[in-house]
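Researcher: Good morning. I'm working through a list of sequences from a screen, and I'd like to move beyond sequence-only analysis. For each chain I'm collecting a predicted structure so we can compare shapes side by side. This is the next one on the list. No need for commentary yet; just the structure.
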Amino acid sequence: MARTRLYRNGVLEAEDFPVEKISDHLEDDRAVVWLDLVDPTQADFDVISEECGLHHLAVEDALNFGQRPKLDRYRSHLFISAYGVRLDGREGRVVTDEIGVFVTAQTLITVRRGDGLDLDAVVARWDDNADLSRYGVAFLLHGLLDYLVDGHLAAVQELDQSLEDVEGLLFDADRPSVRAVQRRSFRLRRSLVVLRRVTLPMREVVNALMRPTLHVVGEPMLPYYQDVYDHVLRAAEWTESLRDLVTTILETNLTVQGNRMNLIMKQVTSWAAIIAVPTAVTGFYGQNVPYPGFGRPGGFITSTLVTVVLSIALYVTFKRKEWL
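Model: Good morning. Structure tokens for this chain:
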């Protein structure tokens, strides 16, 4: 599957034209072309490489998905590997969609696997900011990166809300089982690890694009890239803080369980002490030897009073100490 767009002098001129026509359009220095490929083959890249002069190492990286976010510089173009992120609401896990991007002076080529990444949203951003289209490839690349980074921020925000829900469970009187809390915490931690692998390298990617030596971002587009860079930093720092928060939640969960266990032990010990009083009294009066009040109602009344008074005294004492 291939999708194309042609801008000339900052105006959208054509869409979905054949790939073979790209080189004809690029003969005009005022033309800028976007090409999107989904699940391309080596034969597809042979055509594109001939049309746009792509380096074989960059083509190899684009075909072999699983690259870390990076920016590679070649003589005639740049290659960027990045990821879109979305959160699976049912399982609470982060799903990543890799995209490879070739950047030349007049072309932006995106390479995807499957339709997980919604580039219609990117196209909508380009159309909403058509006044910037006169800045060519820098404009197209900004719309794509802005969409990807906004997805990172949205995923971090959802994970943050999920962590707040887990925090609320820690001190809830009707809290779920310990395993349930630990399972949710470890699932969120795994999602944050995946998100961290995506967001942290993006700092270097966006920062490198703004360097004057690459001749990609001109002065008019620089503030827009700076805004994307600020969002990248925010997503990365937010992810790091959430990872620390997950660790704190796990430690707090263990602490709460320890405190609850201590409280239970105090309660059990207190009731055992209360029960030990009548046991001791009745055991003493159950001896097969004469004792004061033996065989008389006074002895029974005395033993009963001793049992009741000592049991009440212990109960009041433990209640004041908040052991019961």
